[in-house]
Amino acid sequence: MTIYQESQGILDHMFNACTTAQISEFIPEKRGFRLHGHSTTVTLERAFWNVIDAMAQECGLPVPRLIEQVLDSCLVANDKNLSSCLRVICLKYLNIYAGAEPGSESAPGRTEQHGG
Fold first, then answer.
1. Rounded Cα–Cα distance for residues 82 and 75 (Å)
2. What are the CB-based long-range contacts (under 8 Å, 24+) for 59-63?
3. pLDDT at residue 109 above 60?
């Protein structure tokens, strides 16, 4: 009987890191907003809402204003599929900005923030 089983790859490692305590990250959550004066409901998994909340905080915007900006760009790039566009934006944010030092080359467009 094996007590320790070595991970077979990236997917095994990711799924082993997903515990039942994290199941809420996978559950779709609906949030309602007024975007450009129209009521809109967006459904995303909690993991994506966590990223959107972090992005909004970093940008100094309320979540509805951040989503409004994404929507305005999404109209051109993604034929109005806002949920899909938000998921892609979240992945791009995590890949490009999250964990990068402010002002570093790996975080284009970011400026250094100074504590007050």
1. 8
2. 63/31, 63/33
3. no
DSSP state of 100: P
- The domain total for the chain is 1
pLDDT for 33-47, tens place per residue? Answer: 999 999 999 999 999
32 part of a folded domain? yes
Q: Does residue 59 fall inside a structural domain?
A: yes
In this model, does residue 103 exceed pLDDT 80? no
> Which has the closest alpha carbon to 48: 16, 78, 86, 19?
86
Range of the domain at 49: 25-96
Cβ neighbours around 97 below 10 Å, total = 18
